[in-house]
Design goal:
- The chain has four helices and no strands.
- It is mostly helical.
- The protein has a domain at about 30-65.
- The longest helix has 13 residues, at about 5-20.
- It starts with 6 loop residues before the first helix and ends in a 22-residue tail after the last helix.
Length: about 90
């Protein structure tokens, strides 16, 4: 016979099943952030965790920044830029 789940477990299970409105892809990340902490997580903490694991967003930002010169803030650097990215 399985032990009776704690009230906290029952509340969490009910919340996930009935009230949580988030993509099934992001739910595990949010839960890992919430449950892996010794203090409450802010919305920003959760957002940073999701963004840090979202490969599609990393690709978007990599693509968006590929035309920028490394080390200076100019788009499409000229040949004379001494800090132009080599890769």
């Amino acid at each position: 016979m399985a032990p009776t789940p704690s009230p906290a477990y029952q509340r969490l299970r009910r919340f996930i099943a009935e009230r949580m409105r988030m993509s099934h892809i992001y739910q595990p990340l949010m839960l890992m952030e919430l449950l892996g902490r010794s203090s409450p997580a802010t919305a920003e903490d959760i957002a940073r965790r999701i963004l840090g694991e979202d490969v599609t967003q990393i690709d978007v930002y990599r693509s968006a920044s590929s035309g920028w010169c490394a080390g200076c803030s100019t788009a499409t650097p000229s040949r004379s830029c001494s800090r132009a990215a080599t890769g």
